[in-house]
Amino acid sequence: MDEPEEIDLDELELPLHIPRKNGPDCPFCGEPTLSVDGDFVCIDCNGTWYGPNIG
Fold it and tell me: Which domain of life does the protein's organism represent (predicted)?
């Protein structure tokens, strides 16, 4: 029986996801906010580690 080919994780290409900055301006810094899980979030004020599992 043939063994399945082994996947080289170094050559795996993931799709590029560019977040849209289409939200209102942040009231604190004035930068556009990002849409994250249905809410607008300022990444500059909240840090770069904001996501659904982090809060």
Answer: Bacteria
